[in-house]
Write a structure and sequence with these properties.
Strand order of the largest sheet of chain B: 7-8-9-11-10
Shape of chain A: globular
Largest sheet of chain B: 5 strands, mixed, barrel
Distance between the termini of chain B: 13 Å
Helix content of chain B: 10-25%
Oligomer: heterodimer
Strand order of the largest sheet of chain A: 3-4-5-7-6
Mean pLDDT of chain B: 89
Order of helices and strands of chain A: EEEEEEHEHEEHEEH
CATH topology of the largest domain in chain B: OB fold (Dihydrolipoamide Acetyltransferase, E2P)
CATH superfamily of chain A: GHMP Kinase, N-terminal domain
Radius of gyration of chain B: 20 Å
CATH architecture of chain A: 2-Layer Sandwich
CATH architecture of the largest domain in chain B: Beta Barrel
Strand content of chain A: 25-35%
Number of domains of chain A: 1
CATH topology of chain A: Ribosomal Protein S5, domain 2
CATH class of the largest domain in chain B: Mainly Beta
Order of helices and strands of chain B: HEEEEEEEEEHEEEEHHEEHH
Distance between the termini of chain A: 48 Å
Mean pLDDT of chain A: 93
CATH superfamily of the largest domain in chain B: Nucleic acid-binding proteins
Radius of gyration of chain A: 18 Å
Number of strands of chain A: 11
Number of domains of chain B: 3
Structural class of chain B: alpha+beta
Number of helices of chain B: 6
Helix content of chain A: 25-40%
Shape of chain B: flat
Chain lengths: ~240, ~230
């Protein structure tokens, strides 16, 4: 956003990577890719790839963080230095701290953490290749990893990004649309109940456009949820063969 | 319960939030939550829909201690009046002196002569508070110190499958490999004997493939034995 550019993002209804406006990039999902973690997942939206791992429930230190009536969820979003064209300075910065926080709020509502007093569930989302929509890819990956770790949940969380590029409303923004488009919106929801757990927007949109984008995001979330479920089923059924 | 797994087709797997069954006045057990009198799954697992109860046997997850569970523990620390026990859970178990030793023990005595750091014990969970303070006890028929051998970790919910119907599976492994095996509901399995490696391999295979058909035959082939007297 904010960058002026001559790049045409949409030509004849086709986007820079040949998609139509409401089409997601190719989604790849894999469960339990990290043997040392209690649960893990690798999720790719086109060339954006995030790796998530979940540890716990496990003992929580320092002790003052312990809650005697409930467990807590800690999340960490991080972009690898090699995930972008220019090297990203390693470590947590203002942006990743914020995303870690919104990620936690996006996932917490579905967890039955009160079953685990005094302990923590630690979730890590590592973006190893970034091409737009990294935070929603991270949320999708952590959601899968939480299920794989056997943490009790009421539903799964699904996330997608929507936005506006070249005056058109689009689903699942890639890096170019993210940088040079007019608006982008990170969106996460519990698709089964219709609850929205993440809604962030950057750019300029009219109220009508926002309403349309929310509809588009819901439809896309439905498709992504099916893929999440398929990835889990495939893993647990094929494991024994 | 076990013969359901013997069926030749893979059982249904539910994911969190998936509808299992109408409750119809039944109780629910672990892995299930209720909404509008319907039972939904909390975890990824195999649903068990019974006459009195609806539950889900999870395919992954940590052990959470519950009253009267039989567990295998490893002594982590010797305290003034008891021992801290690692029970493969986010919560430590505490074995008080009075629950650990029958005889009278002088307050100044060295507790390491009963249980020392690293010792393996089979004990029972005698108390769990709401905030998950866990108390263990050796005042039980099965409770004893396990000398020698090794402890391996498996998914706690798979223990019943490792034991099998009336202990058929575990006896098969014991006889086939000439080992002594003791299982705890917390997912620790203690093995001691001449062919430990084979017994370990067999148990880890059950852990990995517990919900798949044709497992019994596979284990029979592995340890070279047959389950006698059960209708397969």
């Amino acid at each position: 956003m904010g960058h002026k550019s001559d790049i045409k993002l949409i030509v004849d209804g086709k986007r820079t990577d040949g998609r139509t406006v409401d089409q997601c990039r190719e989604v790849t999902m894999e469960v339990n890719v990290i043997p040392a973690a209690d649960g893990s997942a690798k999720v790719g939206f086109g060339s954006t790839v995030a790796l998530a791992s979940v540890y716990g429930p496990r003992e929580l230190f320092p002790r003052f963080m312990q809650e005697s009536d409930t467990g807590i969820l800690r999340t960490r979003y991080n972009m690898a230095p090699f995930s972008v064209d220019d090297r990203k300075k390693p470590g947590q910065d203002r942006r990743s701290q914020e995303i870690s926080k919104v990620m936690k709020h996006a996932l917490e509502p579905v967890l039955f953490l009160q079953e685990f007093p005094k302990v923590t569930v630690d979730a890590f989302a590592e973006v190893i290749q970034a091409d737009g929509s990294t935070r929603v890819t991270g949320i999708n990956a952590v959601s899968l990893a939480l299920v794989a770790a056997g943490i009790p949940m009421s539903h799964m969380v699904t996330a997608v990004s929507v936005g506006k590029a070249d005056g058109e409303l689009v689903t699942d923004l890639n890096g170019k649309e993210d940088n040079f488009g007019e608006a982008d919106m990170g969106f996460a929801m519990v698709h089964d109940t219709g609850e929205v757990t993440l809604l962030q927007m950057d750019g300029e949109l009219t109220l009508d456009e926002i309403k349309k984008l929310l509809d588009m995001a819901q439809t896309a979330c439905g498709q992504i949820l099916e893929k999440q479920k398929k990835a889990l089923r495939d893993f647990y059924v094929k494991r024994g063969e | 319960m076990e013969n359901q797994v013997q069926e030749k087709k893979a059982p249904r797997i539910v994911l969190p939030g998936e509808f299992i069954d109408d409750l119809k006045g039944r109780k629910t057990n672990a892995g299930v939550y209720i909404q509008d009198d319907k039972a939904y799954s909390q975890v990824v697992g195999v649903p068990r829909v019974g006459i009195y109860e609806v539950s889900v046997v999870p395919l992954s997850g940590k052990y959470i201690p519950a009253f009267s569970d039989k567990v295998i523990g490893v002594v982590k620390e010797v305290e003034i009046s008891g021992w801290l026990i690692d029970i493969n859970s986010p919560y430590m178990g505490f074995l008080p002196l009075s629950e650990g030793v029958e005889e009278y023990v002088d307050a100044r005595a060295d507790l390491t002569k009963f249980f020392n750091r690293g010792d393996i014990i089979a004990c029972r969970i005698s108390r769990v508070t709401k905030t998950k303070s866990v108390q263990c006890s050796m005042r039980d028929m099965m409770a004893r110190k396990l000398n020698g051998g090794t402890v391996i970790k498996v998914t706690p919910s798979k223990i019943p499958r490792i034991i099998g119907k009336n202990g058929s599976m575990i006896n098969l492994i014991k006889e086939g490999t000439g080992t002594e095996i003791s299982t705890g509901q917390n997912g620790y399995v203690w093995i001691k004997g001449e062919n430990q490696a084979l017994a370990m391999e067999a148990i880890l295979t059950i852990d990995k493939e517990s919900h798949m058909p044709g497992l019994t035959e596979k284990i029979e082939k592995m340890v070279g034995g047959k389950i006698n007297g059960t209708q397969e």
